[in-house]
């Protein structure tokens, strides 16, 4: 296990900065998930921690010791990628113990370690089989077992579940989280799948355009996104966004007739003096039978037991949840005050609202 620190880490490929002045401390045994859109620099950061890419500037420290100059094999890390390569002519057991054999570890010790890892990963039946006989998800589990059998200080995982089909992925995700906690190994996991990040991470490191834009526990990043980007990247269905226009009595939603008044607005927001955007998740935008704003509903639809509705403001289509009694009448739209987030329209930063529900 190890603490990891990135200090002013930048990585350039020619003129392009793939990682731009990143600072981060990862605790011993922590499970950190790097999340962000394609090309934002997640994999490059991971590869730099592994020693597969050189830092252009800045430091990478393991337990306070600078490792920039160490080769991958000297860093005591293990890495698992999206596509695993197991040796097809070796059994699962032989594949798993391969790193120990390569290091000349004694037979008794290898047997002990294999026993341990087999128990942790519940691999008993598979051990004598060959990789070709296992489904991709099980092969990935074998790759993980092979990665942890030599007690790495750091486990680096780059989209390890993305090549596995949906159903097995859920199961593997659960299992991976469980295993990581049992092993207590410091883990950095790269994904662009927010659901994976939300369910696995102790903390999420959200990246965009080569920079870290927020580091927080999954719950916090959901309820207190630092910016429009964070608010929209996390949560499904995604957060609605609409520009607010100052009018007498409050803030109007775009060019609609809906005006949010004092009861719905945090104090001071109406007098912000700069353009403000409202962010509201569908769960906090409700079509109800009781009190609310009169709005022309565009469409209603159901996804399983949940019912949704949409309405338009200018070009934008907003989505909310339908809380009317089944077969309900016209309905009114309620904005749940605790769920409203306000962003500076120019900087994109959250200036008010949000927060974990009590
Ligand atoms: N060896 C390289 N040479 C030149 N450019 C590179 C190299 N490696 C990565 N890049 C570029 O750096 C940027 C960041 O890539 P990176 O793989 O870190 O992104 P990512 O966030 O992991 O996205 P993805 O999920 O698509 O892998 C990309 O624009 C990529 O094309």
From TrEMBL:
Task: Using the UniProt record, give the first listed, main subcellular location.
Answer: membrane
Instruction: Give GO MF terms, alphabetically.
Output: ABC-type transporter activity; ATP binding; ATP hydrolysis activity
Q: Which UniProt keywords apply?
A: ATP-binding, Nucleotide-binding, Sugar transport, Transport
- Entry's PROSITE patterns? ABC_TRANSPORTER_2
Spell out the Pfam families in the cross-references: ABC_tran
Segments forming domain ABC transporter: 4-234
Q: Where are the transmembrane segments?
A: none
Q: Which SMART domains match?
A: AAA (SM00382)
Its localization reads: Cell inner membrane
One Gene Ontology cellular component term attached to this UniProt record is: ATP-binding cassette (ABC) transporter complex, substrate-binding subunit-containing
Report how it sits in the membrane.
Peripheral membrane protein
**What's this protein's family per the entry?**
Belongs to the ABC transporter superfamily.
Q: This chain belongs to which protein, by name?
A: ABC-type sugar transport system ATPase subunit
- Which organism's genome codes for this protein? Prosthecomicrobium pneumaticum
């Amino acid at each position: 296990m190890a603490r990891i620190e990135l200090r002013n880490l930048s990585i350039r490929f020619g003129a392009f900065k793939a990682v731009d002045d990143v600072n981060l401390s990862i605790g011993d045994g922590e499970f950190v998930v790097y999340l962000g859109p394609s090309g934002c620099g997640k994999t490059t950061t991971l590869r730099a921690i592994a020693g597969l890419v050189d830092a252009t500037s800045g430091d990478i420290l393991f337990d306070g010791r600078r490792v920039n100059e160490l080769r991958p094999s000297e860093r005591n890390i293990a890495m698992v990628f999206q596509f695993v390569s197991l040796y097809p002519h070796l059994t699962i057991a032989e594949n798993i113990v391969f790193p120990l054999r390569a290091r000349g570890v004694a037979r008794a010790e290898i047997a002990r370690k294999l026993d341990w890892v087999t128990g942790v990963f519940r691999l008993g039946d598979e051990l004598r089989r060959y990789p070709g006989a296992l489904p991709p998800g099980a092969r990935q589990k074998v790759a993980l077992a092979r990665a942890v059998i030599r007690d790495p200080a750091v486990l680096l995982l780059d989209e390890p579940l993305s090549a596995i089909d949906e159903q097995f992925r859920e199961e593997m995700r659960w299992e991976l989280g469980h295993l990581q906690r049992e092993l207590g190994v410091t883990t950095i996991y790269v994904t662009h799948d927010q659901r994976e990040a939300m369910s696995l991470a102790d903390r999420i490191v959200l990246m965009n355009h080569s920079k870290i834009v927020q580091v927080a526990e999954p719950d916090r990043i959901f309820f207190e996104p630092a910016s429009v980007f964070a608010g929209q990247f996390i949560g499904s269905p995604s957060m609605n966004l609409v520009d607010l226009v100052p009018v007498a009595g409050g803030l109007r939603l775009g060019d609609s007739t809906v005006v949010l008044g004092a009861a719905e607005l945090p104090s001071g927001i109406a007098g912000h003096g700069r353009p403000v955007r409202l962010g509201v998740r569908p769960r906090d935008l409700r079509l109800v039978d009781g009190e609310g704003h009169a709005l022309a509903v565009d469409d209603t639809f159901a996804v399983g037991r949940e019912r949704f509705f949409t309405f338009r403001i200018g070009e934008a289509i907003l989505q909310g949840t339908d809380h009317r009694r089944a077969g309900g009448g016209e309905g009114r739209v309620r904005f749940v005050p605790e769920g409203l987030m306000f962003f500076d329209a120019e900087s994109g930063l959250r200036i008010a609202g949000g927060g974990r529900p009590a």
